[in-house]
Amino acid sequence: xxxxxxxxxxxxxxxxxxxxxxxxxxxxxxxxxxxxxxxxxxxxxxxxxxxxxxxxxxxxxxxxxxxxxxxxxxxxxxxxxxxxxxxxxxxxxxxxxxxxxxxxxxxxxxxxxxxxxxxxx
Length: 121
What we know:
There is one protein chain. The protein has about 120 residues and is an alpha/beta fold. It has one domain (about 1-115): 3-Layer(aba) Sandwich (Rossmann fold). It is built from 5 helices and 4 strands, in the order H-E-H-E-H-H-E-H-E. Strands 1-2 form a two-stranded parallel sheet. Helix 5 (about 105-110) links the parallel strand 3 and strand 4. The longest helix is centred in the N-terminal third of the chain and has 12 residues, at about 1-15. The two termini are about 15 Å apart.
């Protein structure tokens, strides 16, 4: 998540408002923002929906053994509806997304929001 945070900070330094969206525990794990960016970069916490067999409080691959990652992916897919609500309410100009949210482009197209896949690989 750090590369995505660094990209967000670079965009915010240019005076653009950035909403960094993730689950609560993942956001809480991030380093604190420099005070000069706090007005431009906002953390948005979307609770990870419950999925049977996914341990409580598991929100990242670091929280689960390999054989349970599939349940984490299923929970991530259930974030599409809360994300749609966020997009409807906030009407962003652009969305950067990673591989876990593969459904973002089709969702964003419903709101006429352009997207870009940002890969750290």
